[in-house]
Specification:
The complex is a heterodimer of chains A (115) and B (217).
Chain A (H helix, E strand, L loop, with lengths): L2 H23 L2 E2 H9 L11 H10 L3 E8 L2 E9 L1 H24 L9
Antiparallel strand pairs in A: 1-3, 2-3
Helix pairs in contact in A: 1-4
Chain B lengths: L2 H21 L7 H17 L8 H10 L4 H7 L10 H12 L3 H24 L2 H18 L3 H21 L3 H20 L1 H4 L7 H4 L9
Helix pairs in contact in B: 1-2, 1-3, 1-4, 6-7, 6-9, 7-8, 8-9
Classes of the chains: A alpha+beta (115), B mainly alpha (217).
Chain lengths: 115, 217
């Protein structure tokens, strides 16, 4: 089994969830969001990774964006979660909890409810 | 424009061109947005770099930190079904479309046999009507075999008309039944092959949400 490939696919699969969770907290402009995501080393995010994800989420109606001028440089595009996005991320988080419990159970470790 | 500016512009446009090429594989309405966002991001990256630090090596590093251009296509259309929007899948679907389904072959063979019967009867009886029917059926058979929509529509129309005419005008029960059976052998497989001639367009979540898009300039 190619573990690198597995890790890459897992990481990519989780990026949507992480992006939506950050945006559920507050609005971000792309650059700012990248810096926030980069703090989570496990995600191993690259500088440009977030933009196709944001474009897809926006197309799906989960986020909206707005370009605003900046006093300190080029205009910034701010991303904000929509009501539909909030519903989606709530469901995704719930599902993530189930998945995490299932994995912990398969590893013989106590699940979330038992910890 | 100084040397580092020129280097930066060259590196940036080269990278964006590579990303654009990678995104060509993807059929997504927000490809241009991604390119604009990347351009904006690169400008911010440059802004935070002190002018004296803008060496060719450091600028190149900034570009490398953006990630491989191919990754953008993968991230823009990652979810199985939606990936059908990737051009490669569209090509694959077109190839599948070209494969003639078995039911259509049944209709083609049946129509061909009816044409031959009409030819034989027409020659024997010297009937212009039967020979005309043979000619028409031969053309439609060739049209169907080459997957022409007009042939499909005409065969359906003529088959339905033939069934109606038989029901209204048939004097001999046995002859009427034969015509109906012949029509059914053509008509039923044809109906089964509607998707071959008129493939359904794939509807995606993205397109259904297109109305919620907000222009970002």
């Amino acid at each position: 089994m190619n573990l690198d490939n597995w890790r890459t696919q897992l990481r990519k699969g989780l990026l949507d969830l992480c992006v939506l969770n950050f945006l559920a907290g507050r609005e971000y402009y792309g650059y700012d969001l990248v810096q926030e995501l980069k703090k989570s080393h496990a995600l191993r995010i690259r500088e440009g990774t977030v933009y196709p994800i944001l474009a897809r989420l926006e197309e799906d109606g989960l986020v909206i964006s707005e370009v605003r001028p900046s006093n300190t440089g080029p205009p910034r595009k701010y991303f904000k979660i929509t009501a539909e996005g909030r519903r989606a991320v709530a469901e995704m988080n719930e599902h993530w909890d189930w998945v995490e419990d299932a994995i912990r159970h398969s590893m013989g470790k106590p699940s979330g409810g038992e910890r | 424009m100084n040397e580092s500016d020129a280097t930066w512009e060259e590196l940036k446009s080269d990278y964006l061109r590579q990303v654009e090429q990678a995104l060509d594989r993807v059929d997504h309405p927000r490809k241009q947005d991604v390119l604009e966002d990347l351009g904006r991001h690169l400008e911010l990256r440059l802004e935070e770099l002190a002018p004296e630090a803008r060496t060719a090596g450091r600028l190149k590093q900034l570009i490398e930190e953006m990630g491989p251009p191919e990754e953008y296509a993968e991230l823009l259309a990652p979810d199985g079904a939606s990936r059908a929007r990737i051009m490669l899948d569209v090509e694959k679907r077109n190839q599948t479309r070209k494969a003639v389904p078995l039911a259509l072959w049944v209709a083609i063979v049946a129509l061909g046999m009816i044409a031959v019967i009409h030819l034989m009867l027409g020659v024997r009886a010297g009937s212009t009507a039967l020979l005309t029917a043979f000619l028409l059926e031969a053309i439609l058979t060739v049209g169907l075999a080459s997957g022409q929509k007009w042939a499909y529509i005409l065969v359906l129309v003529f088959s339905v008309l033939a069934v109606l005419a038989t029901l209204v005008r048939a004097r001999d029960f046995q002859q009427g039944l034969m015509v109906l059976v012949g029509d059914a052998i053509v008509l039923l497989p044809m109906i089964m092959c509607t998707g071959f001639f008129f493939p359904k367009r794939q509807r995606t979540v993205a397109s259904s949400n297109a109305g919620t898009r907000r222009s970002t300039g």
